[in-house]
Amino acid sequence: MYRIQDPAKVVFDEVHFGKFASYYLRGEYYFDVHPPLGKLLLGGVAALAGYDGHYLFDEINDDYVTHNVPWVSMRLFPALCGALIPPFCFLTLKEIGVSWVAAIFGAFMLIFDNALITQSRLILLDSMLLLFGVTSIYAWVRFYKERANPFSVSWWLWMSMTGISLALTLGIKMVGLFTIAVVGIAVLFDLWKLLDIDRGLSMEQFYKHFAARALCLIVLPVSLYLSFFYVHFALLPYSGPGDAFMSPKFQATLVGSELIAKSVAVPYSSLVTLKSKNQGVLLHSHEARYPLRYENGHVSSEGQQVTGYLHPDGNNVWEIIPVDPSQYPAALPYAPDATEKERGLRYLRNHDLIQLKHAATNSYLLTHDVASPLTNTNMEITTVKQDVADTRYVETLWKVVTTDGVPGDRIKSMRSHLKLVNVKHNVAINPNEKLPEWGFGQIEINGEKNVEAKNIIWYFEDVNHDTIVNGTDIYEPQVPNVKKAASMPFLQKFFELQNLMFVHNAALTTSHPYSSTPGTWPFVVRGVSFWETKEGLRQIYLLGNPFIWWFSIGCVAMFMGIWIVDRIVLRRQIDLFGPNVRRWFDNAIGFLFLAWLLHWIPFFLMGRMLFLHHYLPSFIFSTMLAAALMDFMFRIVNEKDPIRLVGGNKAVAATVPYFVYFKSSPYGNLLFVTVLVGLTGAFLWAFGYFSPLSYGYGLPDVEAIRARKWFKSWDLQHA
């Protein structure tokens, strides 16, 4: 919490998470790829500090004092979470059997890590994620140690605490799924052991164990996780910047939504514009023709171009024409409802068959069995004049299919998300990629054969008709602001938002100047610039303590090496450690290794942009592993099982391996402590050396900055 008030400026992703906290206080709906718990907590802290959400953290380097924001209070909560991480890691190490000296050493590595300091002292989510992650592991270890007292109060308590902690972890970021995977694997191993007949459990007793774990580790965390979203929706009743991400049905639940204010039923003969939900382009046509032969060698129909256009234009306007049963007898007969009879109108409905007539060129939208310009597996879409449309009538018919609702529902502008599927060829209107110069750089529109594709969704943006004046239906002259918000079941809202979170998180692929790859993270190849100012040569640069990070990943590699060598020599009936030590080595350090691995490896499978801070959960477990491995090398091997076996069942002393030599010497304990003190000294020096970059209090000159730039990839400012 040292200098937590400094800088009094918006730093890095405070621009996002401070903004989200403000939206809670304003009640305005927003969208984010992360679950809501972390932002809810930040919003709660801000509310307790008397903040009303008047400022939206618009730009990095904006002044907090000028905007009257309680930034110190808002930073204190993440800082408190960060300060609690080392104690819980210490307690976890103690619980798995690590000596207090090594456990303190493990905690010290976290206390003096520059990256953890930087990430914990700002209005960010990561310190909360890390705290709840380590408490999940701590609670699981405590529960596992109660296995001799099944169904006791403490047994239930620690299993419930594990489930609660897992829900809290997942409620901050989806990275919590990796923590759930770690505990889930441990649970499966635990149940597998309980199933062993030698454990003496009847199947009825085993079922009770299984049910208890399902209750506390599945039902409880899922219920708690859902509750975070329930509160999230309850606190955001008003229309806000997140509306556009959601379905029309969801948007209609928000007070003041444009969908409620501007949505109108679409009458036939209306002049409309159709907008792509995903790409935002408008369905467009113009007099220009497709070239006879494309760059890929395929031949076109030389028909009129149909494209997607991003800007308002007269060529974006289409007239809706109803199906003519005399030309398509298979069409269902039209039966007007009471409202249509009264008004003398026919409204467009879900599953209606229509023609789309391009107003500017007086031609009809058509698709046919000709390859599209850029996608030879999809069909070309063009327009044809009346005489051709009459002879190829079915190819000009399009079925209107909404993404929800039932056949016969009225289509509403803005609200109804729909597909337009050709009646003859069963392809949907699909915006694709940018066309070459002959297409004026506009977007290709083709016939997509996969009518379940996500990119084929459209909606009516503008509707012009004699009965619609200035966007208001004359038959429904309500003042927009008094239209009531619709309702939507909670679980529908939850699953819609959860799906969008996954989709948009995976879509974060745009390159970033400070992004990095997972393979570089353990070695601190590059950091992230959070904030900088030329005044005083100050900057905040996210960078792990190099000595701690390198030592930790080295210990991970050493653990793997020891494990492999031990298994190899066991094949020759040479037992270096004995069964007790090996069991502890596998169960305790192996569990930490699993936690490190499962919080790191999944990032290699992601296509989204990634940053150094994504490694922090893995880093924490690597430091814990390092502390436990040091304890193993200097103490546990000899203390826990002094007799090692060589061949058969002979109880004879084996050759003492190098890594247990120190304990075998009369000065073992002294050397153990000396090594830890020496390492701690090196870690402290590196922490102090790089602390100006962590706290942002500046350096005296450019040379001092350059001296800290150990690698070219450390893109420090002013250097």
Describe the protein's architecture and organization.
It contains 21 helices and 16 strands. The longest helix is centred in the first third of the chain and has 33 residues, at 203-235. The protein is elongated and about 100 Å long. Helix 7 (126-144) runs parallel beside helix 9 (176-195) and helix 9 runs antiparallel to helix 10. Strands 1, 2, 3, 4, 5, 6, 7, 8, 9, 10, 11 and 12 form a 12-stranded antiparallel beta sheet that branches. It has a two-stranded antiparallel ribbon with strand order 13-14. It has 719 residues and is of the alpha+beta class. The chain has a domain at 265-467: Trefoil (Acidic Fibroblast Growth Factor, subunit A), CATH 2.80.10. Mean pLDDT is 91; it is low at 640-667.
Features of this protein?
single chain; 719 residues; Trefoil (Acidic Fibroblast Growth Factor, subunit A); twelve-stranded antiparallel β-sheet; 16 strands; elongated
Task: Show the helix and strand layout.
Blueprint: H1 14-26, H2 37-48, H3 64-67, H4 71-95, H5 100-111, H6 114-120, H7 126-144, H8 153-172, H9 176-195, H10 203-235, H11 248-251, H12 258-262, E1 271-276, E2 282-289, E3 304-309, E4 318-322, H13 338-343, E5 353-358, E6 363-371, E7 379-384, H14 386-391, E8 398-402, E9 418-422, E10 428-434, E11 443-448, E12 458-464, E13 468-469, E14 472-473, H15 490-506, E15 528-533, E16 538-542, H16 546-570, H17 579-598, H18 616-640, H19 661-664, H20 668-695, H21 702-707
Antiparallel strand pairs: 1-4, 1-12, 2-3, 3-11, 4-5, 5-6, 5-8, 6-7, 7-11, 8-9, 10-11, 13-14, 15-16
Helix pairs in contact: 1-2, 2-4, 4-5, 4-6, 4-7, 5-18, 5-20, 6-20, 7-8, 7-9, 8-9, 8-10, 9-10, 9-17, 16-18, 17-18
